[in-house]
Design brief:
Elements: H1 2-11, H2 23-33, H3 42-51, H4 53-66
Helix pairs in contact: 1-4
């Protein structure tokens, strides 16, 4: 769990107080879900994170193991 939190912290660098504005996180959501990155709102971001929380945890666990 700690590795997942560290990875999420690292991925939100520069946008930690508003992760929905992160170009990287928007791009990841766009490639994963098909939502257009520039159109993602705060509500859509948190809705997406809640609906896909298991997949996101799995991704963060994988990324932490890869050392990304």
């Amino acid at each position: 769990m700690l590795g997942e939190l560290q990875m999420a912290w690292r991925l939100a660098k520069g946008y930690r107080l508003r992760p929905w504005a992160s170009p990287y996180l928007r791009w990841r959501i766009e490639t994963w879900s098909g939502l257009h990155a520039e159109d993602i709102t705060r509500e859509q971001f948190f809705s997406f994170c809640w609906k896909h929380r298991q997949e996101l945890r799995r991704y963060l666990r994988w990324a932490a193991r890869q050392g990304c």
